[in-house]
Design goal:
Blueprint: H1 30-42, H2 45-66, H3 79-85, H4 126-131, H5 166-185, E1 191-193, E2 198-200, H6 207-219, H7 222-234, E3 243-245, H8 246-264, H9 267-280, E4 294-296, E5 302-303, E6 311-312, H10 313-316, H11 320-330, H12 334-347, E7 357-360, E8 367-372, H13 379-391, H14 397-414, E9 415-417, E10 424-426, E11 428-430, E12 434-436, E13 438-440, H15 446-455, H16 461-478, E14 488-491, E15 501-502, H17 515-527, H18 531-546, E16 548-549, E17 552-553, H19 573-586, E18 599-601, E19 607-609
Antiparallel strand pairs: 1-2, 3-4, 4-5, 6-7, 7-8, 9-10, 11-12, 13-14, 14-15, 16-17, 18-19
Helix pairs in contact: 5-19, 6-7, 6-8, 6-19, 8-9, 8-11, 9-11, 11-12, 13-14, 15-16, 15-17, 16-17, 17-18, 17-19
The protein binds 1-deoxymannojirimycin.
Length: 614
């Protein structure tokens, strides 16, 4: 790492004690100084007084006109602050906030970005990386500490005018095709089964409609959006004797309703969100405050799942963005308090280098000895540490610190490279101890989250990790004949193995999941590197080729064979709520309107305004 000692202040030279000029105007040569001193002594008293008066006038004028325009001391790095930032200061042209450790003062300042974010943010060249010097450091964006609430004016709407290029039009066409199948065969039900021309119900909440609302709004599909709105108004019922999963319902339904409220300004969606939020509250009635996984909307009683006494760590820590937003929108603090209590509680539990086991007992409040992974059941614990910190205007330090600690843990304990081609992957620790070279597709959310973190001032080497990991995630698609990724990939660490990636028959399915496309969007959005768009386009075409069926899109049973894809007859709501939305964002010519400086996206790709305080 190249370091240099910064020059703060002026070079000081010895001067006579009564000398009126500041040291900086002195020549450094002793003869020159003597000459000046002699000339001063040769002046008459009147001349000296006039001189002094003139100097005093100059100083007064400087104080009045120049000083107010200088940066405040809060925004000027002190030498010690600078040293603390050494090595993390130059982040692809984005400097971490110099107010990193300070509480915000005064009212929030609005964001004024003169350029799209990505113009100020690009990957380091190899040389720059070696020296930790970014050439566009000088025109970096100094992100304000606080985000903006885009809806500070009541009912202000953003107008979305639809696709602007052929790739976006192709994505909208895909959405319309999926929506048409859903409308015809599964309207009001949770998911479409496009091959058997029927539906699947999980929670009986019309999941596909609600998950799709903001996607339609953004794509400018007004007619479809209005039909969906009418269904929400007239047919969406939350009562009834049925169990629902707290996490899934929160990210998809509560998240979908709140996001649509924010984008459209239509209060119907907030009213419905509040109705649902109140029904979810019994989940928190446990001795530790860590919620149960399930709640019955009819009996209003919560309980663990039938198969397990424990709750899933990622589930109980992935409801906070939504509950906080509900509190901020309604003025009722209960939702935020109960959900954030969980985060605060888990913050205090012992961890393995910031990493957590995937199960936690809601009665004892203790982790169960279990797998450590950033894949299934672990993933969004890490995602919501960062996103909650951003949502609350970067004011809650423990969220940032726990996030940073966890990424160090990932680097130390979970990152490895495959053989023979040196692909970086993130494995798991079975029982928190034994390394397994296994990576879920779910884990491919991580490059996007890492890039988002770096954008907000996290250490720059997180971006290199994001780049390398996203390359591997893309390879899990590109290596298959269908150009679609399996659910799980194993990595070879032996010298004599020929293939870096191994896919077991039981893991070779593809559920139309979004995580890789999500990360492609973040990386394109934040770096402007169009390679990520090209990779996304290839994946999109593969979905078109192998998942598109007459009445929608179907998950695949086998990505390893073009001849035998074994369609599974299921289109999950996240295909419309997330996968197609991220494709649309990835191919967008406008990376400003839905910028990560304005919104934080929840785990289901729903938009939440960034608040200005804790
Ligand atoms: C989505 O429901 C969410 O992204 C969740 O956080 C993880 N799983 C699915 C998509 O794969």
């Amino acid at each position: 790492m190249g370091t240099s000692t910064p020059q703060w202040g002026f070079t000081s030279v010895p001067v006579p004690p009564d000398f009126p000029y500041p040291a900086t105007v002195l020549g450094s040569e002793p003869n020159q100084r003597k000459r000046l001193w002699r000339r001063w002594n040769q002046l008459s008293r009147f001349q000296r007084n006039t001189c002094l008066l003139f100097m005093a006038l100059l100083i007064t004028l400087s104080i009045l006109f120049v000083l107010p325009n200088l940066p405040t001391t809060a925004s000027l790095p002190s030498p010690s602050r600078n040293e603390a930032l050494e090595g993390s200061e130059i982040v692809q042209g984005i400097k971490p906030s110099l107010e990193y450790e300070r509480e915000p003062e005064g009212p929030p300042k609005p964001i004024t970005l003169s350029k799209p974010v990505h113009e100020n943010f690009r990957p380091l060249t190899k040389e720059e990386e070696a020296n930790h010097v970014g050439e566009n450091e000088k025109d970096s964006v100094n992100l304000p500490r606080n985000g903006i609430d885009p809806f500070s004016k009541k009912n202000q709407k953003i107008v979305f005018t639809g696709p602007t290029n052929h790739r976006q039009r192709a994505v909208v066409d895909a959405f319309s095709h999926a929506w048409q199948g859903y409308k015809t065969y599964a309207w009001g039900h949770d998911h479409l089964r496009p091959i058997s021309q029927t539906y699947n119900d999980w929670f009986h909440l019309g999941l596909t409609i609600i998950d799709s609302l903001d996607t339609m709004y953004i794509m400018g599909l007004d007619k479809d959006f209005n039909e969906a709105r009418s269904w929400v108004k007239d047919s969406l019922q939350f009562n009834g004797n049925r169990d629902i999963n707290l996490f899934e319902t929160t990210i998809r339904v509560l998240g979908g309703l709140l996001s649509t409220y924010h984008l459209s300004g239509d209060k119907l969606f907030l009213d419905k969100a509040l109705e649902l939020g109140l029904l979810l509250l019994p989940s928190f009635k446990t001795s530790s405050g860590v919620p149960y996984s399930d709640v019955n909307l009819g009996t209003k009683k919560a309980h663990p799942p039938k198969w397990n006494a424990d709750s899933t760590t990622s589930e109980v820590t992935t409801i906070q963005l939504e509950f906080r937003d509900l509190s901020r929108c309604t003025g009722d603090p209960t939702f935020e308090e109960l959900s954030f209590r969980v985060s605060k509680f888990i913050h205090k539990l012992p961890k393995t280098e910031g990493l957590v086991p995937i199960f936690i007992n809601p009665n004892t409040g203790q982790f169960r000895k279990s797998t450590i992974t950033l894949g299934a059941r672990g993933d969004s614990y890490y995602e919501y540490l960062l996103k909650q910190w951003i949502q609350t205007g970067r004011t809650i330090d423990f969220l940032r610190d726990d996030y940073n600690a966890s990424i160090s843990g990932v680097k130390n304990l979970l990152v490895r490279h495959s053989k023979p081609n040196n692909l970086l992957f993130v494995g798991e620790l079975i029982n928190g101890m034994d390394f397994k070279a296994k990576m879920d597709h779910l884990l491919c959310f991580l490059p996007g989250t890492l890039a988002l973190g770096v954008h907000y001032g996290m250490p720059p080497d997180h971006l290199r990790l994001a780049e390398d990991l996203l390359y591997t995630c893309y390879q899990t698609y590109a290596a298959q004949p269908t150009h679609l990724a399996p659910e799980i990939t194993y990595f070879n660490e032996d010298d004599d193995g020929d293939n870096d990636m191994i896919v077991k028959p039981a893991d070779s399915h593809n559920l139309l999941r979004p995580e890789t496309v999500e990360s492609l969007w973040y990386m394109y959005h934040l770096t402007g590197n169009t390679t990520y768009q090209e990779w996304g386009w290839k994946i999109f075409q593969a979905f078109e080729k192998f998942a598109r069926v007459e009445n929608g899109y179907s998950s695949l049973g086998n990505v390893k064979s073009i001849a035998e894809t074994k369609l599974r007859d299921m289109m999950e709501s996240f295909f419309l709520g997330e996968t197609l939305k991220y494709f649309y964002l990835l191919f967008s010519d406008d990376q400003k309107t839905l910028s990560v400086d304005r919104y934080v996206l929840n785990s289901e790709a729903h938009f939440f305004p960034i608040h200005t305080s804790r």
